## 1
Amino acid sequence: MSDAVSVLLGARVDGPVTVEDAGLCGMIVLRGDLSSPAFKAACTEILGAGVPEALGSTVAGDRAVLWMSTDEVLVLAPFAEASALTASLAEALEGTHHLVADVSDARAVLRLTGGALRETLARLTPADVAPASFPPGMVRRTRLAQSAAAIRMVSDNEAEVYCFRSVARYVMDILANAAQGRPLGLF
Amino acid sequence: MLILTCPCCGVAADETELAPGGEAHLKRFGPGSSEDAFEGYLFLRQNPRGVHFERWRHAYGCGKWFHAARSTTTMEVFGTYSAQVTEPPPEITAKIAAAGKPTA
């Protein structure tokens, strides 16, 4: 058996904003009618976190549910739990129109920490990252320079970026580069 | 830069987050239709100078298709609306009329 490793192998760039590989993360894509009772029950009972509002997220311990689209959420969980969670979600949703898949290896997770992280993001994305329009808990799927990414504002000093594994090194490099820019005091 | 508000997720999306889908409200002419009608469906587009109804997809965001009404000359956006309609909703046409623009 081979050991699973994250694509960036724990890379980390320190600075005013620290950009680091968040390591292996279990990710499950869950699609269906988000407002249906069966879907809500599956989320609440199995994950402990309810279905998030549009552009929001819910957190329960080391699990989180991120709103991706009007019919899609992304479940975050510890890497080792992902396959078992996928199976129990599939069982709970059986008979309803749904899709559940373990996509833990599809994406990489990067963590940004530091007070100036909004400026770092603003250098790369067209999304409005001002505190009023991008408060903690919000999830925004957008673009970072030339690649697609989802950004979750965990708190005012911490954000997580989810991007495809194949572009993880590129996203890491542009974030690290943007993090070194002169502070502008915009936010 | 064009900024369209996606009616599906409510995000004010920058043009670079969107994928264009061409002219909106085309009626499909498939097998059994006349050659002229099929040609029109496949190739002939309005390309107006003024108000234009378009399809867009929030490609980098929620991934959903929607419709937008905008002016090709001033880039004024009259609104965005659901993709599941065959003609612009009354509130959009009212807005266009209020701006004094003819809808070709």
Note: Chain A has a mean pLDDT of 94.
## 2
Amino acid sequence: MTAVPVGESTVAKIRRPASRVLWHLMVVLILIVLLYPVVWLVGTSFKPAEEVLTNIGVLPTHPTGANYGSVLQGVAGYSLWTYVGNSLIVSVGAVLGNILTCSLAAYAFARLRFRGRSVLFGFMIATIMLPLHVVLIPQYIIFQKLGLVNTFLPIILPKFLATDAFFVFLMVQFIRGLPRELDEAATIDGCGPVRIFRYVVMPLLRPALITTAIFTFIWTWNDFFTQLIYLNDPSKYTLPLALRIFVDQTSQSAFGPMFAMSVLSLVPIGVFFLAFQRYLVEGVATSGLKG
Amino acid sequence: MSTQTVAQPSVESRSPAPPAPKSRRTERSAYLFLAPWLVGALVLTIGPMLASLFLSFTDYDLFTSPHWVGLANYRQMFTADQSFRSSAAVTGKFVLLSVPLKLALALAVALLLNRPRRGQGIYRSLFYAPSLLGASVAVALVWRVLFSDKGTVDRLLSAVGIHTGGWISNPDYALLTLVALAVWQFGAPMVIFLAGLKQIPRDLYDAAAVDGAGRIRTFWSVTVPMLTPVLFFNLVLESIHAFQSFTSAFIVSGGRGGPSDSTLFYTLYLYQRGFADFRMGYAAAMAWVLLVVIAVLTALIFRSSRSWVHYAGDDQ
């Protein structure tokens, strides 16, 4: 990466280290401004209430764990773990649904011939750009009539029907890149589409499945709108909904626990980021996934 | 209920002409693979789309049956509803400010990072991090406090003699905090720009150098044209995304869209109408207006792209 091309003039070589240091300096400076809100959030979660607005620095003058202690004792009458558990249920459910059904649909679109394929494929692509709001109200009515409002099903069930068209598209692109010879060899060996999917495509699809899993998890974990609409009993609240309770509490004493809980709600995303940052960034770079 | 009856015409129900046995078998298993998606497309997409079009001509409160009112919802929207007008204006302003700023910053930082330097990969990941966090309620809460009276922004500006007070409680500035939060997440388009920059063939730059082009000339004549497909992609994606922003406005304004409707995003007003006032018909009409606006704008961007997006191999 840093190899200096041969044949450069000595002047350039001497000038280089300085400009390189300047470049690093600039990048780091921008990053400090950019990441200040996140670092400030973490630092502030350890500040006593009266310090939240008086100390704009990231380090607390009088560090305290009291905010976390108070959050661990429960928020709005329920244990923190209730909210964490609910968030996990919807996020893991969404991941399973997307992995299973998006890959099924993608395989059909990418490899199998059937009547109406191009029309259906065009429709699938169009739904990527479809604003959620135009289907929201009838979907709500359906789930309401089925008595499923205030359960996790309205959030998880659509994922088991491959409604996240973006991931179908991502996998279609990926499968199209796999050599067809593999399918053909398996066909000669007597495999039908089902076994080709199971034993040839699925194992090779792993990178796309991992990308799908990571993004589905993070997006569902962060999602607020759908959860706000479908979950209105505090025992069903997910972390974003529980955090929202703090919005209505305007007293400064609520700031500490609010930020402690905010930090806790971002921990899984931080872990995913550290573990999979390459995957995440490459996923965005190659497929244009939105973050 | 209307949605179920609407969801009838299915591709599967078409009577199949007799093809060769083998391809009929593939055809059958293709629909088997496609079954979950097909059910989802019919029951959760096409059905609801038509149903909400129908509901948009009715008065419906979820508990009594829909009552046909013709164009009354649309008429009220465009002639009588002041909040509708301000919510459309707020979202319009938000899209017009946040999308260009976000893309400009994304491009600028991508150009800065696009150098063979040590640590480039880590920097790229760190710039991307806000895109993962920005949609969360947690970060919106941080924004609320950072831009509040005596918050970090107020204190820093006061230190240099600019007294703005709390941005989130000021109707002139509140929307700007939401723009800032959107622009803060420039990492995702930046990563896409970076990938695009790496695709530009080296020899184009070599040729430009041989022709004696300077840095600025090279930028405008090589980098920019070669990057237009990526710019186009980012522009479409970010615009569609910006129109649907919701969480930040909801959290920063406490769900009300204030002060004085200055952060009343279109989607927030739609939510209030549908899920607080239970005027489902009106909310459905608003959703269809949103769909039409997004579709028309996307079509316009696509049309205009013919004159400014350069695809390699199009010409010499």
Note: The CA atoms of residues 216 and 223 of chain B lie 10 Å apart.
## 3
Amino acid sequence: MNGALLRADKLGVTLSGRAVLKDVSLSFSSQHLVALVGPNGAGKTTLLRALAGLVPSTGSIEVGGELLSSLPLRERARRFGYLPQGHVVHWPLQVRDIVALGRYPRGATDPARLSPDDEIAVTRAMQATDIMTLAARRVTELSGGERSRVALARVLAVEAPIVLADEPTASLDPRFQIDVMKNLRSTPDRGVLVIVVTHDLALAARFADTILVLSNGRLVAQGTPEQALSETVMADVFKVTAYRADYQREQVIVPWAGV
Amino acid sequence: MVSQSATKPAYATTAGLVVLVVFLALVSLGTGPVRLSPAIVIDALFGGGSAAQQIIIREIRLPRAILASAIGAVLGLSGAALQGLLRNPLASPSLFGAPQSAAFGAVLMIALGWADVRSYALPVAGIVMAFVSVFVLLSIAGRNAGLLLLILAGLAISSLAGAATALTMNLSPNPFASLEIAFWLLGSLEDRSFRHVMLAMPFIVAGAVLLWSQRSAFRALSLGEETAQSLGIDVTRVRLLVITGVALGVGGAVAVSGTIGFIGLVAPHLMRPVVGYDPARLLLPSALTGAALLTAADIAVRIIPSNTDIKVGVLTSIIGVPFFLYLIVRERRALAGGVE
């Protein structure tokens, strides 16, 4: 694909002597929602971390035509919004200040002294995730669902061209799962590339433009939900059958029974 | 804008603490065998009063007051910086064996006859050993160190440093030198001169500047090392700079005062709620609180009636250890959960 926003070529990652990721090549343009799925231990999180440059990898990664390894840390941070699993916050900080940390790569190191631009980005991210009313609360007082929305807002506040989200819907109730996916869905409409790791194949099938299936560190399927989550892939990789249907003109794929 | 930061710079707190430190310094200057009122102290500082008063204030007590504030400040700052780096309220130089290791470095210099107690070799040796101890500790603990791991590794390192110091004294050919070292190790600011101030200050100031320069990284580190890295922070570099800063500050301090513990644990803890738990805003108030605590302790050892003089390091430990136990009880759940 020409003019790809993110391209990886023969990506490999070895962690403590074990090859966790082998020979992964991919290429995506902007305005795209990609779901990265696969069984436990397939290397999904590692792929996400490698793409963000957070773990050393072999092969090459290009962002907007530039080699990732040639970019300084601050510049990388402006290009990737990275949402890790778990949403850890070690001190009981205020919600709004956590979201403001998303502006750190833009030079906003002090949440009490944001520039008007930073202030607007923070407010926009908080509105998008519906946490304006939580602004003054301490993160330790929040429920799991509220916390994950705060974490998502922090990533959106970066206003990076690429968003990498690791299981953003884990531990959320169904309504917020759908909210978060819709949020990420509307982000690509604004010209952003979003890559989401998820275990929820139904959400992936419904919201993603492209699905990547990872198994044992290799990319085994890639394409539209129907293509990537074919009956063969479901049986071979996930060891399940799936119920398939159309509902309200959207694709429904629900894992059904073990094979 | 609708949203406002709760963690505005705590100007009022800072101003209050500055006033407190200045007040305590004046009391410190007035405390001793000859008690002097703050008015006389200020007068003597600016060249008034009798010749005897001037000598007492400017040459005998002023170095001691300066050292108490500076050492207390750098210990408070080191504690806050380590807690920020490790996202852990129990991190502090003394629990990591840094002062003990620095003391070993200094003692080794004295025992080997390479340095007397007023040479720059002492702070340098102290800094090197403090650096080694904190570096080893963080290497053992790894990237996402849990509470238990840090405290166990700190215990091991401080025990090792203590044993190495004991061995050095054990092997020392001069028993009087050993005794002197033993007393020096207890931590004291007595009879310090401007020579000592000159000896410690460059290192304390350099360490403080280094730690202060990393403050905004501590805020980003609240989200964990990986997220901080994704925000553009070179976590390895921050670690190295913080270790160096702590080593410079603690090494410089230990070289003139011996080991003074627990200021670095207590000061940040007292200030954390005041600054809205923001690890970056915590640095300055922690440093000022450290200065106030050590100056107050140094006044107390001169006021508490006793036959021999109480060493200030002993006093800070007597107060600090129960405080440490209290923190352990508070963190019991995290500790019982093991290495997170």
Note: The two ends of chain B are 39 Å apart (CA to CA).
